[in-house]
């Protein structure tokens, strides 16, 4: 039996250079039992240049998240060089009924206003598409991936053939 599909679309009424959405975090690894069942909304930046999903140290502190005890931290290369970061576990609600359960998130400071970065570890779980039609940017994300690929080159060729007839 195929998996149940989950997805959402975010529409911006203007062209944008950053894809951000509100998401809810459920701090499953909180040291404070009272916080474990309480979702909190944070701002997420969708970043195809990031290989992993990250949160800022302020979120770790706010949710009293326990760090995973793996004996070592992971070296992470970014614009500022290579740093070592540990991880913790949260559940992330990307939309109302669209949850990524027990997701490892690395804790590191990064520039910008977003509280978290959604990286390719989550984006590659499904299909991700960005559109810029009619002066508006939108993006859609769905899990699991659909069996048919979205091929914009084929769509462009079909539109060109239609225009030459």
List the helices and strands and how they pair.
Elements: E1 6-12, E2 19-26, E3 40-46, E4 54-55, H1 57-62, E5 74-78, E6 81-85, E7 87-95, E8 98-107, E9 116-118, H2 120-123, E10 127-133, E11 136-143, H3 152-164
Parallel strand pairs: 3-9, 4-8
Antiparallel strand pairs: 1-11, 2-3, 2-7, 4-9, 5-6, 7-8, 10-11
Task: Explain this structure.
This protein is mainly beta and 165 residues long. It is built from three helices and eleven strands; from the N terminus they run ββββαβββββαββα. The longest helix is centred in the last third of the chain and has 13 residues, at 152-164. The mean pLDDT is 89.
In short:
The protein has helices at about 55-60, 120-125, 150-165; strands at about 5-10, 20-25, 40-45, 55, 75-80, 80-85, 85-95, 100-105, 115-120, 125-135, 135-145. It is mainly β. The protein has a 6-stranded mixed β-barrel with strand order 2-3-9-4-8-7. A 3-stranded antiparallel sheet has the order 1-11-10, with no helix packed on it.
Strand order, largest beta sheet = 2-3-9-4-8-7
Poorly predicted parts: none
Annotation field: number of helices: 3
Shape from CA axes?
A: elongated
What is the rounded Rg?
18 Å
Beta fraction: 35-45%
Q: What's the overall average pLDDT, rounded?
A: 89
């Amino acid at each position: 039996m195929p998996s149940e599909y989950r997805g959402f679309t975010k529409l911006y009424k203007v062209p944008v250079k950053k894809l951000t959405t509100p998401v809810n975090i459920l701090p499953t690894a909180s040291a404070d039992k009272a916080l474990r069942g309480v979702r909190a909304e944070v701002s997420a930046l969708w970043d195809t240049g990031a290989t992993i999903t990250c949160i800022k140290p302020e979120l770790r502190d706010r949710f009293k998240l326990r760090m995973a005890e793996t004996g070592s931290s992971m070296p992470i290369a970014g614009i500022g060089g290579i740093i070592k970061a540990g991880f913790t576990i949260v559940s992330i609600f990307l939309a109302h009924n669209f949850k990524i359960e027990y997701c490892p998130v690395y804790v590191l400071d990064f520039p910008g206003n977003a509280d978290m970065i959604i990286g390719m570890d989550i984006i590659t779980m499904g299909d991700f598409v960005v559109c810029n039609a009619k002066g508006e940017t939108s993006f859609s994300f769905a899990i699991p991936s659909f069996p048919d690929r979205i091929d914009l080159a084929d769509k462009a060729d079909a539109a060109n053939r239609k225009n030459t007839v």
